[in-house]
Amino acid sequence: MRNADDSGAELAQGPGTPPDYVERVNRAIDCVLTHLDEALPLERVARAADFSPYHFHRIFRALMGETLAQFVKRVRLERALRLVSHEPERSLTDIALACGFGSSSDFSRSFKQHFGVPPSAFDVDAFRAARREEFERAAGPNHRHLLRGLKPGENPDGFEVRIRSLPPRKVAYIRVLDPYRPDVVMQAASRLVAWAETSGASGGQWLGYMWDDPEIVAREDCRYDVGVVVEDCRPDGEVGCFEFPSMTVAEVELRGGIDLEMRALDWLWRTWLPASGYLPTDQPSFEAWIGRPFGHGDEHFELRLQLPVTR
Fold first, then answer.
1. Helix (H/G/I), strand (E/B), else coil: 226
2. Which of 6, 27, 157, 277 is least enclosed, having the fewest CB within 10 Å?
3. Strands (E), 105-238
4. Taking every pair of C-alpha atoms in the chain, what is the biggest distance, in angstroms?
């Protein structure tokens, strides 16, 4: 976890940070996220960012608040914890290899160094519950009730799932680090809308997607992208480009406040998914906006939640 005084979120968005650096570090992060199960030496990731390894090491640490090696290990462990949580029948060896560890012993050693106990003794349900409680406390007394979890099996809103196949998509995005800070996501959305209007791309599907599960990843380490589907894309300062493969998604349409969206997510993950015969993939879950992002402000949302799944 980063120190508060060394926050990559602040540096990456700061006026003194060259936009070109933000673009290149985003390319490095995308390289890591796309190839997490492969070897990721400094030279390879620096090449993706078009920096020399020496300069990349310094710049990445300055913008992200941790070294590349620390970032890669943390993201691998967080993905492994997600797999342990949602696919408990998978072996530790399988999870270790899927997350880029050389062996189950390497995974267990790194896991114990990070979490204090080996994965076989880790209480993932208690860990997620504690993270959720921390998340609710951070919302403050006026909003805490909106984030309270829906118990497994409950569906008071009558959510229904539609299974869809989506084609490959190119997405222009602005990445927000530590996205739970006030207004930072809305501000990023406004900047991307202005960019899209200038670029003639504002008519595409607007997306929001979180790369991290806040019940596993510390809030300040989460990453959220505001994006728009485009026909073609080139990085442009803080606007990056990412290509998503074709995927199957479980989709729920909703119109309401943040409390409705949180209940929909809880229902998807805790009730629908375990009984569905599907498994989650390593792609992020999407908010596919109906219209433009925050078109109704920050109190009312109209969107389709899309959970990437596989058989």
1. strand
2. 277
3. 162-166, 169-177, 206-210, 223-230
4. 55
Three-class secondary structure of residue 102 per DSSP: coil
**Terminal-to-terminal C-alpha distance of the chain:** 34
pLDDT recorded at residue 5: 38
For the chain, helix (H) and strand (E) counts, in that order, are: 11, 10
Structure letter (DSSP) for residue 140? -
pTM of the model: 0.86
Tell me which amino acid residue 28 is. Answer: A
Pairing state between β 239-244 and 169-177: antiparallel
CB-side exposure of 168: number of CA atoms within 13 Å?
6
Residues across the chain = 311
Mark residue 237 as left, alpha or beta (left: phi above 0; alpha: psi -120 to 50; beta: remaining). Answer: left
Token pair recorded at residue 172: 């222009």
Q: Cβ contacts of residue 152 below 8 Å, gap of 6+?
A: 270, 271, 274
Q: What is the pLDDT of residue 142?
A: 55
Tokens standing for 77?
A: 């462990």
Cα(98)–Cα(102) distance, integer angstroms: 10
Question: Is the CA virtual torsion 119, 124, 126, 127 positive or negative?
Answer: positive
The token duo for 184 is 């930072």
Best CA proximity match to 178, nearest among 3, 7, 5, 6? 7
Q: Which of 158, 188, 147, 173 is nearest to 267 (CA)?
A: 158
Tell me 17's DSSP state.
S
Q: DSSP letter string over 155-167?
A: -TT----EEEEE-
**141-171: pLDDT as tens digits:** 555 555 566 788 889 899 999 999 999 999 9
pLDDT (mean) for 247-259: 95
Cα separation, 281 vs 288, whole angstroms? 18
